[in-house]
Amino acid sequence: MVKIMECIPNISEGRRLDVVEEILAEVRQVAGVTLLDYSSNADHNRTVISLIGEPERVVEAAWRLIVKAAEKIDLDQHQGEHPRMGATDVVPFVPIRGMAMEECVDLAKGLGERVGRELLIPVYLYEKAATRPERRNLAEVRRGQYEGLKESIRTSERTPDYGPSVLGKAGAIAIGARPPLVAFNVNLGTTNLEIGKAIAKGIRGSSGGFVNIKALAIDLSEQGLVQISMNMVDTQGTPLYRALEFIKTEAAHFGVPIVGSEIVGLVPLEAMMDVATYYLGVHDFSSEQILEKRVFGF
């Protein structure tokens, strides 16, 4: 069986689409790697990229992307609503077929060592690759963002796993291994960020909410919105509809409407099936009832 691994790099550029295309071109040049999807958000000033292929080829594509992003993105000039600490902010490896998580961890460590040694970019290993318990959580790794890390990186607590304890314009990067997750955002019809913060606090696992949800409130006041931005780390344990219904209930408490939602990047079919069966009230629905699955066998 051919081993297949996915990588979902997030780069800190979502406005200069010509720069995004230059970075994507590096991925497209790697034989055996498929660029599955990418999504740029100007408010977040961030692009989420999904690529897949055999592990060694995916690692090479990730390396080239990191090199080009470091060349093209200056964190001293970067502004956006999404937390970030690096030009390439995060690079997670996800086992898809024929791979154990431990293999993804080893590849993350190998890439991290190379980035630190050759590019002199500080690297933090996170999630399953973390070398410290507190670094399993990306939010903790990225605490203080680029600006705050400039000072705190000199402390023993924030010493990177690879690379120097000093930040250049490319910032730092988190490299790790994790299971698949879904990036799910819900927009509130308000500009009151405090309402968004209260709802995000209520839903995220670290503050007593759903253990499978990481969430923060993002100010999109120029659009007349506040966004609840979530990483759904286990959509079987906590389905998308459960997160949406919780946010609906909390928003109604504040007299605020839900005005839309979005999924950034890719989503497993099973996660969308759960949503459809919940809202349609369908009983005993099976993936075998999906026409394309029966015809094409995917």
UniProtKB/TrEMBL annotation:
Chief location: cytoplasm
Top-level division of the source organism's lineage: Bacteria
SMART domains hit by this protein: FTCD, FTCD_N
EC annotation from Swiss-Prot or TrEMBL: 2.1.2.5
EC category name: transferase
Subcellular location as annotated: Cytoplasm
Listed pathway(s): Amino-acid degradation; L-histidine degradation into L-glutamate; L-glutamate from N-formimidoyl-L-glutamate (transferase route): step 1/1
Molecular-function GO term, any one: folic acid binding
A GO cellular-component term linked to this record: cytoplasm
PANTHER family in alphabetical order: FORMIMINOTRANSFERASE-CYCLODEAMINASE
Name this polypeptide is given: glutamate formimidoyltransferase
Species this chain originates from: Desulfosporosinus fructosivorans
Lineage, opening ranks: Bacteria, Bacillati, Bacillota, Clostridia, Eubacteriales
